[in-house]
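Before surveying the methods themselves, let us examine one representative protein, pairing a chain with its fold in token form.
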Amino acid sequence: MKNKFAISELFLFFLLLVNLSGCVKKSTIYYPLKEGMIWEYQTSMNAKVTVTNFATRELKGRKVTPQKIMDMDILGQSYFSFIAEDNKGIYEFAT
């Protein structure tokens, strides 16, 4: 009887753990929008592209994260992309 109770408790704990882990915002793992983050990409043409996140702001009624994208090797240019997130996912709202 004691063994059945322990198994039931373990099962309930596991069920609770699985449900709570689903509440974590997974988009931040794959596409971080945290202010101040900087990362670099190496392109197939051996060029370096740097992406910098800025503080969130409102743009046309949407909360967006501005990202400065610098391509100093090939075109020598930089531009801003405004990234938004909603219940459907993360997307580029404006450039």
Notes: Residues 2-21 form the longest helix (20 residues).
